[in-house]
């Protein structure tokens, strides 16, 4: 029968499809026979055809790799296979067949080693590894590498002995022995325990030597060998720490060695980024940031063949855009440095290289400088904004004007990154920067209008333009006509599809800033978009349809209900029709965001369309579309014609089998069937679809109110699953959606909403607590902390009603403040409290701080005071001079806001808080002064009896601050602080000296939220008939006119002004009319509108 099987396998080697199909069918029948295993073993060991032997070995591995097939075999058969396979392995002359047989050995080992049923294998390994013959040593170590991958846990009792063998085999660098040893060590690394740690650790110097040797004759093997470092860093970083410095030095050397190939350099550079994230304190303590930056900057400045159109600068950071190049990897590692290292440790190293590079005149050097600046913009944002912004912007503008394409593109990329991450400060330079971008846009229009192709760098130019537009808001208006003229010109010219897509996107960004001021351009925009939206697009213009949908959604959100409502129903129909016609994740996600934007206009009127919308969105959340299976690079895999046929059942009925011997239960219970699978990934478009589905559900829940209620439970169940999704962006979006769901349920009055809130709040609060403690991504943890603050602010006390919720929230704040969460690098060595942090680590702590005052608004003053007393030492600790400016500023701001939440209970904390605020008010840093002055004001207002004796001291501090203050927000906070003191206790303030000074500092310059405090003070003095208010009434009314109906007045301020002006116009007609006669017409109209808006308070007798 073996000869018959061999004949069948030979048919599969014939270059005739009909013969192959015949052989495939016959093989399927043979595999159902009870004796097929023995026949396959005979073919594997004796066939003259190497490929036939290989096929037999692979089929055996596939079949007997499954537990249910192996356990059915008699013991004698198993023993025969185990003996025969080792003999066949030694005898086999062909490399590809040996590989297939060795892989078969590995799957048998998985079944047999754990129960001690294959001592011959261990003897075989010992004999082979210690052989004097090179080919036997190679085979022995290769078998160990495979068995450790398939049955590592079963080998653990023998690990100590194997490590002793490895000490020798690592030195065997003239063959593949050292490489296969590295593979075995990589497999064992996650399994090492305390018993084997010292022996494993002792091998690392030899590991480094082996990798260095591999670099000279097989870079791919060296790169794969370095996988050991990744696994150790991820699973057993303690093993790596004693030898981390030489490991990093090896990576520095490989990174900077331009004679090496991209693969191994990218491996080294990527590891440097990963270890910086994981062991940032080690990097700083050992002063390794200097060589790290030097190596990455050297790579960033390197010349490469694709520098003329470097994908990185063209906006192609993903697939096909240089994602596998050393330059791209170095950029990502610099980004990791900025996100995880203290800026005052990183930036001096970097700036010392950037400045000479910018002056060098060498395009690659200048390119590297701009790239480096761009990549640290996010992580070092505060430091760059406050210390380096203007000179760097001047350098960037100079680069954009360069004739050299590489310099121009890299400068545009840097400007885009700066525009995104250095807000709001960078927007102050719009008068300098926008003309530069407009000029480039004009040149681009000329080039493409003459039939030229898209100039390189156009992506980055539009990117920078968009980010500026979105952040400028009203300051964009003077530039709006020129900008829209240029964008319409791009759309009207015979430009490429890509250019048109960029222009349509820029129109959406412009609408976000200009809002209703886009009205004059609305019809023209709609006409241009209509063709892309209403007609089926070819594959090459599909991106225009998606981008037009996105821009339409932004117009809906920004134009206002009165301008867009008439178009909204047609837009819903358009989106639903598009989803029916195009089965595409980009179309779906963009339609979902369009529906979310339309919900902000239509509100509950969207209800009739929600069944169709929600059905499709739930499918998107449940979908596994886009999941890509990555298979191991296996030269011994089955041919595609027979792949899978080896799994045919050898018994027809199967009724007598145990449930765990076959069927779906067995396949799910063990991963034998996935032995060839290296891993899984999800295509970006499908990831973004899930993320944007969560974002859109959040918006629908927010805007549709009770109309969304029937979908709340189903949405909650599906979005809740996304909280455990592997991608952090999806998890973050899911956190936002779940937060809004509970807020929306709390605000709907229907009984089922109340029941839904009680259900979901008891799910959400504990889940967010789990994520804060265990999620490795800071962005997700920050989203959860922000969610706590938001839900406490919006819903209040009901959030804390269920048992354990208060403790969960408080404990999360404590753990973040004490840096005990997973994302705060728990694997890193402990450091002192005074160690500097990366800006994003500080940001995480700020998010935790924002929960505290929100918590106070959801609790009674006395109850909150008890919790605040526990948290206070953590925040006081962050106000030390050894802490960073950002930490001190945020802590003082949090304490000040907490005083507001404490109300009258804040008196018990005066002795602890007052010295902090007084000291902070004298700080050299603007933000610290501003927050401290605010704190003095709220403490003076709410400190009750305990603060009264300190009024003179507070006023003295404020007076000193005012005499030398130039920071606009701090000046505004001084006005607010004095106003609070006056409102609370006017008799404790020398009004004749103080009040005129305050008036002289008004109107406010920047912190317009303080306007409500100021006018509340004025109204309190008015009601109390204070003579200083009467003496300065005209001045006060003029201030009211300057603020009323402007962006400086929120709803509370508006009401206060209406009451004040209405009362003054009646009680003091002479002063009021005199002011009216001398005011500008616009201010007169504001005062008259305020006076007519509300009934004045009861008349008061004019004060003398």
Automatic annotation (TrEMBL):
<dbReference type="GO" id="GO:0031267">
    <property type="term" value="F:small GTPase binding"/>
</dbReference>
<feature type="domain" description="Importin N-terminal">
    <location>
        <begin position="23"/>
        <end position="91"/>
    </location>
</feature>
<keyword id="KW-0653">Protein transport</keyword>
<dbReference type="InterPro" id="IPR040122">
    <property type="entry name" value="Importin_beta"/>
</dbReference>
<feature type="region of interest" description="Disordered">
    <location>
        <begin position="632"/>
        <end position="675"/>
    </location>
</feature>
<dbReference type="Pfam" id="PF03810">
    <property type="entry name" value="IBN_N"/>
</dbReference>
<dbReference type="InterPro" id="IPR057672">
    <property type="entry name" value="TPR_IPO4/5"/>
</dbReference>
<keyword id="KW-0539">Nucleus</keyword>
<dbReference type="InterPro" id="IPR016024">
    <property type="entry name" value="ARM-type_fold"/>
</dbReference>
<dbReference type="InterPro" id="IPR011989">
    <property type="entry name" value="ARM-like"/>
</dbReference>
<keyword id="KW-0677">Repeat</keyword>
<dbReference type="InterPro" id="IPR001494">
    <property type="entry name" value="Importin-beta_N"/>
</dbReference>
<keyword id="KW-0963">Cytoplasm</keyword>
<dbReference type="GO" id="GO:0005737">
    <property type="term" value="C:cytoplasm"/>
</dbReference>
<dbReference type="GO" id="GO:0006606">
    <property type="term" value="P:protein import into nucleus"/>
</dbReference>
<dbReference type="Pfam" id="PF25780">
    <property type="entry name" value="TPR_IPO5"/>
</dbReference>
<keyword id="KW-0813">Transport</keyword>
<protein>
    <recommendedName>
        <fullName>Importin N-terminal domain-containing protein</fullName>
    </recommendedName>
</protein>
<feature type="compositionally biased region" description="Acidic residues">
    <location>
        <begin position="646"/>
        <end position="675"/>
    </location>
</feature>
